[in-house]
Amino acid sequence: MTTIKYYWEDFTPGWEYESPPRTLSARQITAFAREYDPQSYHTDEEAAKSSPFGGLIASGWQTCSIAMRLMCDGYLLQTSCIGSPGLDELRWFRPVRPGDAVRLHTTVLEQTRSLKDASRGSVKFRWDVLNQKDEVVCSMTGRQYYVRRTPAQ
Amino acid sequence: MLDDRQTVLRAAHAGTVSRGDAQAPAAGKDPPPGSPAEPMPRRYYFEDFTVGDVWEMQSPVITKEEIVDFASRFDPQYFHVDEEAARHSTYGGLIASGWHTVSICMRLICDRYLLDAMSMGSPGVSELRWLRPVRPGDSLRLRITVTEAKISRSRPDRGTVAHLWEAFNQDAELVMTMQGEGILARRNRSP
Questions:
Q1: CA nearest to B96 within chain A
Q2: Quick one: CA torsion of B53, B7, A46, B29, rounded to 10 degrees?
Q3: Residue spans per domain, chain B
Q4: Does the residue A110 lie in any domain?
């Protein structure tokens, strides 16, 4: 376990983070899809050409999973995060295609103390995934739970 | 590893889905140049999903190795990848990444009907809730209930089907719920 640098208190509304980009190859797209989402426009370059997308695209769940990894590498593993109750909204606006370089942009929307447990709180985030053309390909709002730095007595 | 898993998943759903040739178009069957590609006919179209329809499916047992493998790639928080550290976490042991749980459910839907449906993707989902941890040795029963089906106004060749996802563990506890949305082509309508 790495040392915790960021606690609940640090995620004040307006806090932002932007990750470095990660490029997705056709091989990575088809490998993920063969395991979890084997629709032909995710697994078969040739069949994907006659799909509504005109070519291979990443599973939306892969885009989310990569956003999660970018978050982990960017800051989450250095935080007191203890999980998430879920997402309110998740939108896939544009396909992610082989060669696209996606990055994560995090913004804090709300910070709420736990009424039940004074040692923790929740933070509501907006997570946007952008491509190399600065287009938003995916956008999520959801919450995570964090332990507080100085638990109230 | 991957192939083993696919075999297990296929075996778990043997007989429920005829995959046909949709995943592997035969060589030499390409349309002549210039003509629009004709998509392969499928078993399920927009019309086949009506409000109240229920689809049920069952996952294989989820192993510790799978949980750690997925999380090492996409969500390496200690309670997903480090059994020993996870024991001292709020969860008291290793748990699956929420993204892993969703992805397992997506695979179940693919094998049950989606690969045989004229699916045109999804605009998104809402109210995704991870209600209880998924632990090594758990298996999931997924219930999909169609909650809304409406024809697109702007593109009458397709429609949107909204559905509630409910994933239960082997103790019949709800572990995840979600409101999903899928776009499906209508039968006998050219785009």
A1: A83
A2: -90
A3: 49-185
A4: yes
Provide the residue range defining the domain that includes A91: 8-147
Based on the structure, what is the number of domains in chain A?
A: 1
Among A39, A42, A139, A146, the strongest candidate for a mutation testing the B interface, having the largest count of B CBs within 10 A, is A39
Amino acid at site A60:
G
Q: Tell me the pLDDT tens digit for each residue of A91-142.
A: 999 999 999 999 999 999 999 999 999 999 999 999 999 999 999 999 999 9
3-state class (DSSP) for residue A87: strand
Question: What per-residue confidence (pLDDT) applies to B39?
Answer: 63
Q: What value of ipTM does the predicted structure carry?
A: 0.95
CATH number at residue A62: 3.10.129.10
At residue A20, does pLDDT exceed 50?
yes
Is A67 within a domain? yes
Inspect the interface and report whether the beta carbons of A68 and B22 lie closer than 8 Å.
no
In chain B, which residues have their Cβ closer than 8 Å to the Cβ of A88?
126-127
The tens digit of pLDDT for each residue in B3-61 reads 444 443 443 443 333 333 333 333 444 444 444 455 678 899 999 999 999 999 999 99
> Going by CATH, does the domain composed of B49-185 fall within 3.40.50.300?
no
Distance from CA of B19 to the nearest CA of A (A): 11
Q: Does A65 sit within 8 Å of B73, measured CB to CB?
A: yes
Which of B39, B82, B97 lies at the smallest CB-CB distance from A50?
B39
Joined together, the tokens standing for residue B189 give 């309508």
Does A88 map to a domain? yes
Which residue shows structure tokens 């082997």?
A: B170
Lowest mean pLDDT among A13-17, A106-110, B27-31, B115-119: B27-31
CB–CB contact B103 A39 (8 Å): no
Please name the member of A38, A61, A92 whose beta carbon is closest to the beta carbon of B99: A61
pLDDT at residue B22 in the model: 36
Burial of A142 (0-12, 13-18, 19+ CB in 10 A): buried
Q: Which helix (H) or strand (E) holds B163?
A: strand B158-168
